[in-house]
Amino acid sequence: MSEQDAEIEWLKAEVNCAALLERLPPVWRLDRAESTRRSLKYRRGGGEIVIVNHDGRGWWDPLSEAKGDIFTLVQYLDPGLNFGEARRVLRGFVGIAPTFPEALRARRTRALRIPVAQRWDRCRPLSRGSPAWLYLTGQRGFPENILAAARVADAIREGPRGSAWFAHRDGAGLLTGIEMRGADYRNFSAGGDKTLFRLPGFRLPGGTGRLTRVAVCEAAIDAMSLAAIESARCDTLYAATAGGMGPATIAALHQLLRVLATDPAGVLIAATDADIAGRRYAARLQKMAAEAAVRFDAILPPDGLNDWNDVLRAMMLVS
User: Fold this and answer.
1) Which tens digit of pLDDT belongs to each residue from 54-85?
2) Annotation: CATH topology of 115-318
3) Pick from 7, 38, 81, 95: most CB atoms within 10 A?
């Protein structure tokens, strides 16, 4: 092995991707609520996300196809660096530990011991007048018919302290994880996998129930908001990825694209947030639709509003 190759391997072993994100300006911040010990989520600016894995030796961007090791990360953060310049930058990070607390906490370890399906089964179905119902109708502006539809689909259950738990399911309908939201709380179930939150539109009497539209949002709250805005169209599945596309989410989307590809009217719709990250997310969905030979459309919240729940609440104020 040459001296240069030896240094490259040394830098890969000694520089932690998380430490680079925390210290190379403009710095990224750890999202503790959505991180685990094996998967650290870092955020920056207008919705940018990087996930650090493999004990700090690897990384990936859930909003694009970018991923790799410490060398690809430093060049991803500063595209103007050539390989030699990247090596010089990384030498200054040798031995620096990331500052995230050990906090990737004991209670999360305990939660891993309880299977996700068992945690879901322990929760009550959504019921009218409950704390979660009042949070969703009051702070989020959901009409009661949308919540009733979500209850029938077993898409939402009652979480602790007035939070709402949203089911992520795979193509076979099996629960894989839980997206958790409350008035001042956001999380994803420890030990669970993000696939897709799914809310089917209303089935009208005498209707065919044919699925020709899949609208993909970033969060379950947004998917339900779009369903409310569109009066839950009977030809549409309202889906959400919980902000990112890991392997299980991509597999679920490919399964839906195969369904849409069988119908000339089939269309995949990116209904993302109105920010840079949302547009990148939509571009990735557009590429997937093109590869599957499925029509594509993108819709964004109107000017001044960031996401579809903002739109729904604005409509409720006017009505």
Assistant:
1) 888 999 888 778 889 999 999 998 888 898 88
2) Dna Topoisomerase Vi A Subunit; Chain: A, domain 2 (3.40.1360)
3) 81
